[in-house]
Amino acid sequence: MVGRVCESEEDSQCGENVSLLPNLSLNKITTGAKPWACSACGRAFTRHSSLKTHIRCHTECKTYDYQKYGEKPYKCKECGKAFTYLSLLQRHERTHTVEKLNECKKCSKAFASSSSLQIHGRTHTGDKPYQCEICLKAFSSTTSLSKHDRTHTRGKPYECKKCSKAFTCSSSLQRHERIHTGEKPYECKKCSKAFTCSGSLRVHERTHTGEKPYECKKCSKAFTYSSSLRLHERTHTGEKPYECKKCSKAFTCSGSLRVHERSHTGEKPFECKICRKAFSYTSSLSKHERTHTGEKPYECKNCSKAFTCSSYLRKHERTHTGEKSYECKQCSKAFACSSYLRKHERTHTREKSYECKECNIVFTASKYLLVHLRSHTGEKAYECEESEKGFSSHANF
């Protein structure tokens, strides 16, 4: 026999213990008492059948909207993670107790259910079968679509009490609140680094595993992050969605645009603490600081040659792989780095970007300008050993 505490609709308890048997002489319907209380949320009912129907709210139809109030009453005993619904907790618990039979063939990541594997698989294929009827934006899962739908219908009902910033769902609010509390509940088992959300932890873990789940369909190059893949894909499509309002120059990513805008403003916010030289970009400062320290942290795995910055390493690695991912749209000639492509493109456009300050003659490449400058300075870089005669260019020599 299981006992329940009689509760009223206003959630105040009368304190009377009631048996879960049909003949309840102390709690007849006519008295208005509600002896059938839900152990999950405390809501009370007059009839046992009504309680049974209500219990489905927690296990099946989810009509009691805990999410609306930001409640997560179901907590995992193994790891402490909390959930809005019992069904979500039960699914999560399988990750601790049940053998993961659903393994991704691409990256070997395993899942407790086939549906979770199916959703994960879309991160590799880029498949987004769920489309918003209002703005036509596509999503890989119904959960993501539902979350997005609220931006059209419900606005942002979840507000931070600290800074009044509003969010479309309670999980986003909880994640944001950790900025104020400093809470970082997701810890890396390899290096103990902690993160505010599980997504950031998963991304970080790839630095240990070397996993690169995002593959380019054009050239099969793989990436650690989906954002890196999207950026790379633009090298094939030529898409440059970020345009400078000053000069209309377009860029493949917003970061490059922000960096470019400093060429108009002259802003150099990053200063070297040793020599006080200022830079427009943090990467330039970091690169410069290594001229003081001699540090070369980027090492080639093929030949152990080390470099001061990652871009030099990537450029060098192409000498081993033969990769030429920068292709000219005019003649399809491919190049190992973007600077070589830009230089080549000038042969089609006849663009002359190197100007002599003495006489204003412009040249397509810096080497031609250097040779020309010798006509002003009188410098003769090439000398004949037999006649000891000097020449300003290799061609004349």
Layout of secondary structure:
Elements: E1 3-7, E2 13-19, E3 36-37, E4 44-45, H1 48-59, E5 74-75, E6 82-83, H2 86-97, E7 102-103, E8 110-111, H3 114-125, E9 130-131, E10 138-139, H4 142-153, E11 158-159, E12 166-167, H5 170-181, E13 186-187, E14 194-195, H6 198-209, E15 214-215, E16 222-223, H7 226-237, E17 242-243, E18 250-251, H8 254-265, E19 270-271, E20 278-279, H9 282-293, E21 298-299, E22 306-307, H10 310-321, E23 326-327, E24 334-335, H11 338-349, E25 354-355, E26 362-363, H12 366-377, E27 382-383, E28 390-391
Protein name: C2H2-type domain-containing protein
GO molecular function: DNA-binding transcription activator activity, RNA polymerase II-specific; RNA polymerase II cis-regulatory region sequence-specific DNA binding; zinc ion binding
Subcellular location: Nucleus
Note down, in words, how this protein is organized:
The protein has 397 residues and is an alpha+beta fold. It folds into four domains: 3-64, no CATH class; 71-227, Classic Zinc Finger (Double Stranded RNA Binding Domain), CATH 3.30.160; 282-351, 2-Layer Sandwich (Double Stranded RNA Binding Domain); 355-391, Classic Zinc Finger (Double Stranded RNA Binding Domain, 2-Layer Sandwich), CATH 3.30.160.60. The protein has twelve helices and 28 strands. The chain has helices spanning 48-59, 86-97, 114-125, 142-153, 170-181, 198-209, 226-237, 254-265, 282-293, 310-321, 338-349, 366-377; strands at residues 3-7, 13-19, 36-37, 44-45, 74-75, 82-83, 102-103, 110-111, 130-131, 138-139, 158-159, 166-167, 186-187, 194-195, 214-215, 222-223, 242-243, 250-251, 270-271, 278-279, 298-299, 306-307, 326-327, 334-335, 354-355, 362-363, 382-383, 390-391. A hairpin with a 6-residue loop joins strand 19 and strand 20 (278-279). The model is unreliable at 1-31, 60-64 and 387-397 (pLDDT under 50).
